[in-house]
Structure formats: C-alpha cells, structure tokens
C-alpha cells in the first residue's frame, strides 16, 4: 500500500510541476478582450516572422517549364585508345554501315540496335571532360545536346585531347537532325 501511495504522490507531483513550469500553457486564458492567450500567441508569432507581408501570403501561380521530348541514350565511359581525336571538333554519327575502323570492334555488338554519336568540342576545351545530360528535340529539325563540362588539372595543355565522348542512341533516331551543343546553363559550346 505504501508503495502505491508513493507512486501516486510522485505522479501527481510531476504533473503539477509540469503544469506550473509551462506557465499554465495547458489552459487558455481570457484577457478580457474575448481572445484567448493562445490565439494571441498565434497572431503575435505570425506578425513577428521576418519578411511576412499580406502580399507574400498571396499565392502566385507559376507556369511549368517547357519540356522537350528527349532521345534516350547511354554514355560510353571510355574512348578506345586507338581512336584518336578528329582533326577538328564536331558532331559525328557512326552507323553500322558508316563508321571509323578504330571503333568497329568496340561497338560490334551494338551496331544492329544502336547508332553512335561522337561529340568532340573545339581546341579551347583541351583537358576538359564532358558528360551528356540530355539529348532534347528542340524542334522538328534540331536536337539540343546538353553537356556538363568539367575542368581537369590538365586544362589548356597542348598535349591533352579536346573534350570528347561517345554516346549510344537508338538506331536511326538522329536521322535528319542538325545539332545545337550547349552546357547545362544553356551557353553554346564551340565545336571548332
């Protein structure tokens, strides 16, 4: 019996201590104006929020960004050692019927289902690495290749290759298109 009584006393003491320590926040009070203290706290806390104005509380609708159709692709993480940079930068499309001999064996199992897009940036991108981010259909005649450009420690060294990459695309998906090559911010990248 003594044990149950001491547990009850401990529990009641703890409860009363919490009620008094919280400033009686468990119970709304009336300040005479008909508003409870909890309502006043809510109003006061929202008016004390920095930068809050009536204009900011109004929601402005936002138009979605235009989404262009994309051509699916797979990035090739390597360039065969016997495939030297082309004499000048550009976009090259290699197919089963027309491709550089140096890549014939590298992609021999892909030729029936894939075409190979080879992109090589201009001389000013020596020592950079590129990573394709998207291949968008800008319009009926133009594809936009979006590249992430990454500087290496060898940027600008004359013995380094220009930034270049192989990209596998579905067979025939590039037929009839011209290309626009940009970085992730939309700035055009030079191929010359």
Regarding quaternary structure, what we see is: single chain
Would you count the extended β strands for me? 7
SS strand fraction? 25-35%
Unreliable parts? 39-47
The main sheet orders its strands as 1-6-3-2
How many separate domains? 2
The shape, in one word, is: elongated
Largest sheet: 4 strands, antiparallel
Class from helix and strand fractions:
alpha+beta
The number of helical elements comes to: 2
Q: State the share of residues found in helices, binned by percent.
A: 10-25%
Distance between the termini: 94 Å
The pLDDT mean sits at 81
- Strand/helix succession: HHEEEEEEE
Explain what the structure shows:
It is a single chain. The protein folds into two domains: 2-47, no CATH class; 74-183, no CATH class. Helix content is 16%, strand content 25%. The protein has two helices and seven strands, in the order ααβββββββ. The strands form two sheets. It has a four-stranded antiparallel sheet, with no helix packed on it. A three-stranded mixed sheet has the order 4-5-7, with no helix packed on it. Strand 4 and strand 5 form a beta hairpin. The radius of gyration is 33 Å and the shape is elongated.
What is the gist of this entry?
The chain contains 2 helices and 7 strands; from the N terminus they run ααβββββββ.
